[in-house]
Design a protein that fits this description.
By secondary structure, the protein is an alpha/beta fold. It has one domain (about 5-310): Ribokinase (UDP-N-acetylmuramoyl-L-alanine:D-glutamate ligase, 3-Layer(aba) Sandwich), CATH 3.40.1190. About 35% of the residues lie in helices and about 20% in strands. It has twelve helices and nine strands. The chain has helices at about 20-30, 60-70, 85-95, 125-135, 145-150, 150-155, 165, 170-185, 215, 245-260, 265-280, 310, and strands spanning about 5-15, 35-45, 50-55, 75-80, 105, 140, 190, 200-210, 230-235. It has a nine-stranded mixed beta sheet with strand order 3-2-1-4-5-6-7-8-9, with helices on both faces. Strand 5, helix 4 (about 125-135) and strand 6 form a beta-alpha-beta unit. Helix 3 runs parallel beside helix 4 (about 125-135) and helix 5 crosses helix 8 (about 170-185). The longest helix has 18 residues, at about 265-280. The chain starts with a strand and ends in an 8-residue tail after the last helix.
Length: about 325
């Protein structure tokens, strides 16, 4: 029986539809997967920023996850806003007890605007965070989120960039912190999303991942000093519609991984889709002022046929 690939998405609601589960569902559906959304919290947000958050009762949060994981095997899991360490611990336990595909975690640490009304403090519980990270395959922080996540590791190993990395120039501090996070929590891959570096009309994402055995010629699974670094450049789009870019990007990655697309292929495809969303909707305005949603109006470039697969080519496993 042919069926859509399933993506379990865990996160908060956004009444403007620009971020959280609303954006996740839109992207997952666009990439022809079936979304199964679990609500972790309810938020009120507007063009002026974040207003308020209400945690989902832990019992209903748990029951939502049980209802899915006891009956369905998700082909991928995308995790966004988690309002407490308790929610994180429950999610980690259920992921460890049930079968599922790759887990992508987009850590929502603190909103840019309205932070005084944001109460999530799960990153302070290092025990819950360590258990949770053991279930994650890819983490996608921006630089402020990376700095927050890596603090426990820096308390032990320090913040000084090793001499061998300094030769890499301005990227050294990013690579050092990414690798420190990867090592400390034993995460297979960490993607630092762009915006952290000012490079004119372009930006750079940095991926650190464990190398495969065929890349090293030997089993390096226990050697944390061995890692693979990739720089993924992208073109910036001049648009006020940037609310929810992290949600859109990570959901796109999860949807591609669900379809058995290799990570090295999934990342540039997700970046290209993100560019199409931003470019196609840059003239649209939801609000008179402030940030609009990154996923707004999808305009598919004119072509002889129809379908997003025309924009991505015939990548193996993609939308087949």
């Amino acid at each position: 029986m042919q069926k859509d690939k399933i993506v379990l998405i865990i996160g908060g609601t956004d009444c403007t539809g620009g971020a959280g589960l609303a954006a996740d569902i839109s992207v997952v559906r666009t990439l022809q997967c079936y979304p199964m959304p679990v609500v972790s919290c309810i938020t009120s947000q507007g063009p002026e920023g974040f207003r308020r958050m209400q945690q989902a009762d832990i019992e209903i949060f748990t029951d939502q996850l049980v209802a899915v994981l006891k009956n369905v095997r998700p082909d991928a899991v995308k995790i966004g806003m988690l309002p407490s360490a308790r929610h994180m611990a429950v999610l980690a336990m259920l992921l460890s007890e049930n079968d599922h595909g790759p887990v992508v975690f987009d850590p929502v640490m603190r909103p840019t605007d309205g932070a005084e009304n944001f109460s999530a403090d799960w990153w302070e519980d290092t025990g819950a965070l360590a258990f949770f990270m053991s279930q994650v395959d890819l983490v996608t922080p921006n630089y402020p989120e990376l700095k927050q996540l890596v603090r426990p590791a820096e308390k032990i190993y320090g913040q000084d960039v090793p001499e061998q990395l300094l030769a890499m120039g301005s990227m050294a501090k990013y690579i050092y912190r990414i690798n420190l996070l990867r090592q400390f929590y034993d995460i297979p891959a960490v993607l630092l999303t762009g915006g952290h570096n000012d490079d004119g009309d372009r930006y750079t994402d940095i991926l650190l991942r464990n190398p495969s055995d065929d890349e090293t010629g030997q089993d390096e699974s226990d050697n944390h000093n061995v890692y693979h670094v990739e720089m993924l450049g992208g073109e910036k789009v001049a648009t006020p519609n940037t609310h929810g870019t992290g949600c859109v990007y990570s959901s796109a990655i999860a949807s591609l991984l669900a379809q058995d697309v290799n990570l090295n292929v999934a990342l540039p495809l997700a970046k290209r889709l993100m560019y199409i969303f931003l470019e196609g909707g840059k003239e649209w305005r939801l609000f008179k002022s402030g940030k609009g949603p990154a996923f707004s109006i999808l305009k598919v470039p004119e072509s002889p046929g129809n379908g997003l697969n025309l924009m991505f080519g015939d990548s193996p496993g993609f939308m087949n």
